[in-house]
Amino acid sequence: MVPSRPAANRPHVCLTAVLIVTSLALMDAYLVEQNPGPRRIGVCVTVLAGDACFLIVLRYVAVLAGSEVHTARRGYAMILWFFYIFILEIKVYFVYQNYKTQDVSADAEATDSDVSRRALTLLLSVCMPIVFITLAAIDHLEYLRPYKKREEIRSRLFWVVVDLLDVVDVQANLWELQREGLPLWVEGLMFFYCYILLLVLPCVSLSEISMQGVNIVPHKMMLYPILSLATINIITLLIRGGNLLIYGDVRVSGIMMGKNVIAIVVKSCSLVQYRKHQPAPPPADRGAEIHSPPEQKQNLFFIESDESFIFRQRHNT
């Protein structure tokens, strides 16, 4: 008998769809506002056609992701996150290119442009973490009844949110106003490096929840901390240090640089403690006895029973 598929959590599906559609619609508003005149109609048609195709995909993937809310599986949630970031970052790239080609001539125009660029950074730093937390849905996992275990997983997801803000901050240095622009190859490398991190690393965190299953052990979820230590905490620290020392970018966030230094120390200590407290493997004989097949155990039982029966027969005679 084939088990029935669990029903989708409708509030979760609606909330996820509303968050994704709202953030994409706000990015569409940026694209339309940046193209005045006759080009605006063409941009509107292109944007609406792309959104219609995405809504078709969202209709099915969001429902499938909503059916995984109460389980350990997060496969469709990873697919939905991948599609969401893929579409969102394409829109961000075109907005960034439009800002790059703008010629700021007056102070009022410069002020308005600065406000809109910082608003774009604020939009990304709010929408991405909220969508990720909604897809993770830790509070809906029915089998995580112990409060301590749930809080440990929630603290790990908090690190993912902080890393998302770190990546968005690095990416925002490209479109927010600055005195001297970076070389073209540096800008392209920074943007697409952040693009890959936003696509992959949250999916790694969701996959750790899926791989653990019902018997989830938070201290064994070490794949994401190792990857984030190398790709975010170390490399973004080098990126900010290079922009500050080589190109004189005074807008580099000192707070995020301090966060990376603290994260390097904390995650390194966690890795050392994890290696120290790894349980020793069981003895070979005991493991063979435990993992012996049931047929072998049954044969041994019968042999022992036959020997005891023969011994009792001899004793009685």
From TrEMBL:
Membrane-crossing residue ranges in chain numbering: 12-32, 38-63, 75-96, 116-137, 190-209, 221-239
Record-linked Pfam families: CECR6_TMEM121
Keywords: Membrane, Transmembrane, Transmembrane helix
InterPro entries named among the record's database cross-references: CECR6/TMEM121 (IPR032776), TMEM121 (IPR042314)
Domain of life according to the entry: Eukaryota
Family under the similarity heading: Belongs to the TMEM121 family.
Protein name as annotated: Transmembrane protein 264
Annotated source species: Sparus aurata
